[in-house]
Specification:
Strand order of the largest sheet: 2-1-4-3
Shape: rod-shaped
Number of strands: 4
Order of helices and strands: HHHHHHEEHEE
Largest sheet: 4 strands, mixed
Distance between the termini: 132 Å
Radius of gyration: 43 Å
Structural class: alpha+beta
Amino acid sequence: MLKQLKNILMIALVAAITICGSTSCNSSKKLSKKEYKVKVEQAERDLNALLNDETEWTLEEQQARLEEIKETDFSSKNPEIMEMIERAEAKIANDLAERDRLAEEKRLAEERRIAEEQRLRELEEQSQPKTDLTDYFTMIVNAKDMTSANDIIKQALNLFEAPDAVVLIRLNNFGDYDKPTTASNYLNYLKDQKTINVGIYNIKYNANNKITELELIKK
């Protein structure tokens, strides 16, 4: 009997602690009238500011503040605040969508600008007369002075993969060759000799359309 009484008392004690703890927990969440009034006033000020674009907050900061306001239950006593919350949510969602739309428009406009610049550059390049290798040979031997000739050589070397690209000179059609040289050396040779006594026999290019090997033949 005593043992049963102890069990009953223990069960009652646990139940009392549970109920007390639950009541205490709920009461800790309950706001006083003063605290609730402060929450209402602050929520109204911030919601009005949000709806009237009177804050300097970013859209993300506006969202964060709105979530803070929603943590307080205004539904029973302040339905007007609930209505303002709904309007603020809709406004922020629209503002976010508009921001994304403008960002996309800006991105597309930048892509169009870059594409147009590229198109104009290509048109300009196409409209400019092309200078081929034989033209450079002639310009080098006819240069008015050494400085001009050196400038033309620099331009001509842009046609080659490298200044030391191989230049072969065929002496005849039977496969006899002079000593191999390089693009840079041969162009400087033309500058010094002031004459052209070869023609282009064959040209090899790399994937970037740069000359890797030039084969000339004596005239």
